Structures are given as structure tokens and as C-alpha cells.
Amino acid sequence: MNYSFKTLWNAMFLAVGPVWFVLVWMIWSSGQLKTAEDHTLFLGLVIPGFILIYLSGFLIQKRHAKKIQGQHS
């Protein structure tokens, strides 16, 4: 593999991000979210969820690097 994990992870999110946005927009404009509380809850789950998934990739990579380091010791 010629690229670092960080480069590949960021490239993947640059590809997935717009698709995620379109999905969120489709749900938002579908009329399924009737009240202001529905809108707040939806955004309160979607935005932190996207960020959490993004950051979890780096946590997984860090744990994997520690595991590989432990095997070489």
C-alpha cells in the first residue's frame, strides 16, 4: 500500500461525505420530520454520528499500530 491510513481515510470521507449529505437532505425534505423537536433530534444524531465515525477510524488505526508494534517486539 503506497498511501498512509490517514490519506486513505480522509479520501474515503471526501467521497462519502457528499453522499451522506444528500441522504440527510432527502430525509430532511421528505416531510417525515414534522416538528422542531424532530429536526433538532435528527441533526443532533446525524452530525455527531458522522464526526464520531470519522474519528473512530483514527482510534482503530492507533489500536492496530499498537498491536503491530507489540508483535514486532
Count the helices. How many?
2
Mean pLDDT: 91
H-E order: HH
Give the radius of gyration.
17 Å
Shape: elongated
Number of strands: 0
What is the CA–CA distance across the termini? 23 Å
| Strand-residue proportion | under 5%
Spans of 5+ residues with little confidence (pLDDT < 50)? Answer: none
> Sheet bearing the most strands, described?
none
Q: Report the helical percentage.
A: over 70%
Q: What structural class results from the helix and strand content?
A: mainly alpha
Which terms summarize this structure?
73 residues, mainly alpha
Please provide a written account of the structure.
The protein is mainly alpha-helical. The radius of gyration is 17 Å and the shape is elongated. The model has no long low-confidence stretch (mean pLDDT 91).
Compile the SSE list and pairings.
Elements: H1 5-29, H2 36-72
Question: Summarize this, please?
Answer:
The chain is mostly helical and 73 residues long. The protein contains two helices and no strands.
